[in-house]
């Protein structure tokens, strides 16, 4: 709304000046107020874009929001150090930067953020350099990446069989084929070079360029396509897929916790955990449109049909019993007449 007002600033001012009776004098905009709204936009627009980035999906992934704190910090820092802006707006930018830094500092409590930065195809070590991370921060991030990789994802290449494992053809004294010897020598050299390759160092030393639209790639899709092509990077691809499958926030868990808490009212505090879990699960099914809209109608109709079937069965049994009683009575009368 503010951006639209700035775009139509001349029309808004012209309307208020030509219609003084509509807006009171003390509430009327002045032509000099445009700079105030432009400064306000400079601070609010980055926050609005970041909020939209976090909430444009039901479940945003970590790869879709990585780098947001750094962008906000850079934007607010530029506003704070801009001498052309009024002091009030520089102070506002400084305050906003402090708030961003507060929550950015909390990202150090989880390893997934550092992993996401280093495993993002467009970021890697270049991102840390551009953001001027301190050397100990860089070393910590790389150590986190390496320790998790070696503990859970590292793939050791299979060694080829040794010479003593080759079958004995009874030609121990035969002369060695020079061609085979040369091939084996090259094979041994290649294996030695392959052992020296560090997938993490190789990954961090490179970077994937931005798209033609100057946009970053979708890291989850990028790694998945690479794995489908057989580029496992000695287990690094599996690690990246696990990292970028993590949700960016705990909103889903918090919402579920709050929703479950609302079910435990003072009159229902003795509800068992299993029953509460079922109630919350069914409620979530309705919210996600997993339950057909006519399910309740069909269930009620089925119950009515079942009750009707039971009543009809009882009527049928009563008729059978009545028919048997009449037949028995007729038989008894016939026997009495014969006597």
UniProtKB/TrEMBL annotation:
| Location(s) in or outside the cell | Nucleus
Signal peptide bounds: none
Which InterPro entries does the annotation name?
HATC_C_dom (IPR008906), RNaseH-like_sf (IPR012337), ZnF_BED_domain_contain (IPR052035)
Looking at the record, which segments are called Disordered? 311-339
Residues passing through the membrane, by range: none
**One Pfam match, by short name?**
Dimer_Tnp_hAT
CC annotations in GO: nucleus
**Where does the record place the HAT C-terminal dimerisation domain?**
202-286
**Comp. bias intervals (Basic residues):** 313-330
Keyword list (alphabetical) reads: Metal-binding, Nucleus, Zinc, Zinc-finger
Origin: domain of life: Eukaryota
| A GO term for molecular function | zinc ion binding
- Fetch the PANTHER family from UniProt: ZINC FINGER BED DOMAIN-CONTAINING PROTEIN 39, ZINC FINGER BED DOMAIN-CONTAINING PROTEIN 4
Q: What's the name of the protein?
A: HAT C-terminal dimerisation domain-containing protein
Provenance organism = Tilletia walkeri
Q: What is the phylogenetic placement of the source species in the record?
A: Eukaryota, Fungi, Dikarya, Basidiomycota, Ustilaginomycotina
């Amino acid at each position: 709304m503010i951006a639209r007002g700035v775009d139509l600033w001349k029309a808004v001012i012209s309307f208020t000046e030509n219609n003084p009776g509509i807006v009171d004098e003390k509430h009327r905009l002045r032509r000099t107020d445009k700079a105030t709204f432009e400064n306000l936009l400079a601070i609010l627009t980055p926050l609005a874009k970041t909020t939209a980035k976090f909430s444009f999906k039901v479940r945003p992934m970590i790869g879709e929001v990585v780098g947001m704190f750094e962008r906000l910090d850079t934007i607010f820092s530029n506003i704070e150090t801009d001498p052309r802006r009024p002091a009030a707006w520089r102070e506002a930018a400084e305050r906003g930067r402090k708030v961003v830094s507060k929550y950015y500092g909390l990202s150090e409590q989880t390893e997934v953020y550092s992993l996401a930065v280093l495993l993002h195809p467009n970021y890697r070590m270049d991102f840390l350099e551009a953001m001027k991370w301190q050397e100990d921060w860089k070393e910590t991030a790389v150590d986190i990446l390496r320790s998790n990789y070696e503990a859970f994802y590292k793939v050791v290449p299979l060694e080829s069989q040794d010479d003593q494992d080759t079958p004995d053809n009874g030609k121990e004294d035969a002369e060695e084929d020079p061609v085979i010897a040369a091939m084996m020598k090259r094979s041994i050299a290649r294996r030695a070079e392959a052992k020296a390759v560090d997938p993490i160092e190789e990954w961090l030393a490179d970077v994937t360029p931005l798209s033609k639209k100057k946009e970053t790639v979708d890291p989850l899709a990028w790694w998945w396509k690479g794995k489908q092509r057989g580029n496992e990077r000695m287990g690094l691809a599996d690690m990246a897929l696990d990292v970028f499958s993590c949700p960016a926030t705990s909103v889903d868990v918090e919402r579920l916790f709050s929703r479950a808490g609302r079910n435990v009212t003072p009159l229902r505090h003795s509800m068992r955990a299993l029953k509460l879990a079922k109630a919350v699960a069914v409620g979530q099914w309705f919210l996600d449109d997993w339950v057909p809209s006519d399910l309740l109608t069909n269930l009620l109709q089925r119950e009515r049909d079942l009750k009707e079937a039971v009543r009809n069965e009882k009527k049928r049994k009563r008729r059978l019993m009545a028919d048997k009683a009449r037949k028995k009575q007729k038989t008894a009368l016939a026997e009495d007449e014969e006597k």
